[in-house]
Design a protein that fits this description.
alpha/beta, Cytidine Deaminase, domain 2, six-stranded mixed sheet, two-stranded parallel sheet, 3 helices, about 25% helix, globular
C-alpha cells in the first residue's frame, strides 16, 4: 500500500511530540482505498504503553473525512520504547478487521520505523508500506 511521504512525516512527528507517551491517530482513505490523510489525535489515556483515541476528536475526524468523500480506513499509534510491531494489547484491541493498523516504532534498528498491519481474528499480517511518489505541482501560465 502506498503511504504518502507527508503522512509518514506527520505520524513520526506526532510520535516524537507525544513522548514519553504513545501517540495515536486515524487514517483516512478515498473510495479507491488510497491513504489521503493522517489525523493526529490526543491520547485520552496518556501512557508510554497504551493509547485511547479521544472520542470527540475521533468523531470530528470521521465527519471531516466524510465531508471530503473519504472514509476512516485505519489507525496509527506509536511505541515510544519499542519496535513497530503490534503488541498483544494492540492485537486484543483491534476490533476493525478492515482497518490498517500502523505502528511507529521509536526504538527499533531503523529509527523511526513505520510499518502497517492487518489484524483479523487475532492474526497479524504485515502490509508493506511503500512511499507514494509525490506528483509535482504544475502551474501553467
Amino acid at each position: 500500500m502506498e503511504l504518502p511521504a507527508e503522512m509518514r512525516r506527520a505520524m513520526v512527528a506526532h510520535a516524537v511530540f507525544s513522548l514519553p507517551g504513545e501517540a495515536c491517530g486515524l487514517l483516512a482513505a478515498d473510495a479507491d482505498g488510497r491513504l489521503r490523510l493522517a489525523y493526529c489525535l490526543s491520547n485520552a489515556t496518556p501512557s508510554p504503553t497504551a493509547y485511547t483515541l479521544d472520542p470527540g476528536e475521533h468523531f470530528r475526524a470521521m465527519r471531516h473525512a466524510e465531508a471530503q468523500g473519504w472514509h476512516l480506513a485505519g489507525v496509527f499509534h506509536s511505541h515510544p520504547r519499542g519496535r513497530a510491531y503490534p503488541s498483544p494489547t494492540d492485537v486484543a484491541q483491534a476490533l476493525e478487521p478492515d482497518w490498517l493498523y500502523v505502528v511507529v516504532g521509536l526504538a527499533g534498528p531503523a529509527l523511526p520505523e513505520v510499518r502497517g498491519f492487518w489484524i483479523r481474528e487475532g492474526r497479524v499480517e504485515e502490509e508493506a508500506l511503500v512511499e507514494a511518489v509525490e506528483k509535482p505541482v504544475v502551474v501553467l501560465p
